[in-house]
Design brief:
Layout lengths: L2 H13 L9 H14 L6 H16 L1 H11 L10 H16 L5 H15 L4 H13 L1
Helix pairs in contact: 1-3, 1-5, 4-5, 5-6, 5-7, 6-7
Length: about 140
């Protein structure tokens, strides 16, 4: 999978945290990967490991990431944000702050692309605006 495809799968995986308790995420991860099998989609072991490891690292740091988002998103709190936008922001903030392999500009650009694909009409502008505060 390309980095963009991997990032999209991580987004889909961590989106589940909005509907499940943290202690249920191990089971959710199994269900997430079983979908590929059921659909006959092959996924390399290294890609599954990458999605799992990065997704779980993000989930472990959710409180810290949400605190950072709340401090930067003036007039907004994570509790008021749409679930898609919030999940995209969590992934991007993790990449900006904790993942040395992803340049800040790439994290922001990829987040905007995810927002265009999965969010509402104004999502990409919102995501870009919040993340710009992390870049400066």
């Amino acid at each position: 999978m390309s980095r963009r495809e991997l990032r999209e799968q991580i987004f889909k995986f961590i989106f589940r945290v909005e509907f499940n308790e943290k202690d249920e995420m191990s089971e959710q991860e199994q269900l997430f990967f079983s979908y590929f099998e059921e659909e006959g989609v092959s996924i390399a072991d290294r890609d599954m490991r990458y999605i799992s490891e990065k997704g779980n690292k993000i989930i472990e740091k959710l409180e810290e990431i949400d605190g950072m988002i709340n401090r930067q998103a003036k007039g907004w709190t994570t509790g008021r944000m749409g679930k898609v936008d919030l999940t995209i922001l969590r992934l991007a903030v993790y990449e900006i702050v904790f993942d040395e392999d992803v340049p800040t500009g790439v994290a922001i650009n990829e987040a905007v692309e995810l927002a265009k694909k999965f969010g509402q009409e104004e999502s990409s502008g919102f995501v870009n605006g919040v993340l710009a505060k992390f870049a400066g």
